[in-house]
Amino acid sequence: MSFESQLKNFLNDFEKLIVLGVGNELKCDDGVGPYIIKRLQEQIVEDKDRFLFIDAQTVPENFTGKIKKEKPSHLIIVDACLMGGKPGDMKIVDKNDFANIGISTHSMSLSFFVKYLEQDTDFGIIFVGIEPESMDYADKPTEKVEDAANEFINILKGNII
């Protein structure tokens, strides 16, 4: 099943969506999560009843209370992710496969973060990983990763607007 089909299926019955961008903007492609959130905030007028975009930087755990308080039906976590693919490859990673992939710079394991969020809540969670090309110090993603980020944004917008 294609990435687009998987995302469409996930969002099929969403009532309230939170997109959480994770990453370090100072480390080139690791900043793809925050890059996506900034573009979504520029391109979509937030409708707090339907969707919310959170730039979590490298501390997604700081937003667990906000996420639980907002009571989303769906949560998408977006981050650079070492999956052994080509730069810019996008993949929906099952929460049970987190242990098998290299999630970059974050202080709290995203698998632990998801397990914590799932306590006492009932919403769908997916993780969108984008294969980085460079994690060196730079203030924006490489061209391939930026193209992938923009493709993700367009697919998402097509399914939520």
What report would you give on this structure?
The chain is α/β, with parallel strands linked by helices. Helix content is 34%, strand content 22%. It has five helices and six strands; from the N terminus they run H-E-H-E-H-E-E-E-H-E-H. Strands 1, 2, 3, 4, 5 and 6 form a six-stranded mixed sheet that branches. Helix 1 (3-11) runs parallel beside helix 5 and helix 2 packs across helix 5. It is globular. The two termini are 23 Å apart.
Radius of gyration: 14 Å
**How much strand?**
15-25%
Helix content range of the residues, please? 25-40%
Enumerate the spans where pLDDT stays under 50 for 5 or more consecutive residues.
none
Helix and strand content put the structural class at alpha/beta
Q: Can you give the mean pLDDT?
A: 88
Query: Strand tally, please?
Result: 6
- Main sheet properties: 6 strands, mixed
Order of helices and strands: HEHEHEEEHEH
Morphology call: globular
Number of helices: 5
State the separation between the terminal residues, measured CA to CA.
23 Å
Question: Which keywords apply here?
Answer:
single chain, 161 residues, alpha/beta, six-stranded mixed sheet, 5 helices, 6 strands, 22% strand, globular
Brief summary of the model shown:
By secondary structure, the chain is an alpha/beta fold. The chain has five helices and six strands; from the N terminus they run αβαβαβββαβα.
